[in-house]
Amino acid sequence: MKIEKIICDCCGEEIPTVKKKDIFGIEREYYRFGKLNYGEPFTDINCHNLGLDLCERCAGKISLEMYKTRMEMLNGTK
Ligand SMILES: [Zn+2]
Fold it and tell me: How far is the CA of 7 from the centre of ligand 1 (A)?
C-alpha cells in the first residue's frame, strides 16, 4: 500500500519515507519528518505536531537558526 505524498513546507521537496516493521511485525511506510532542536530543554520537537511538515534538512537548518537566536537572547548580545 502506497501512502500519500507529503511536501516539505519549507523547501517544497517530498518528505522521504522509510519502510519499517511496526509492533505487530507488519511492514509499514513512515515519513521521515525532520525534528526540531532548540537546545535544552527543547530538543526532539516533532514539528508535525506543530502543524508543520518539514524534511530533515530544513528542520536541521531551522533548529540551528532558533538555537543561535536563543543563545543571543540569553547572552543579551546583538
Ligand atoms: Zn525541506
Answer: 8
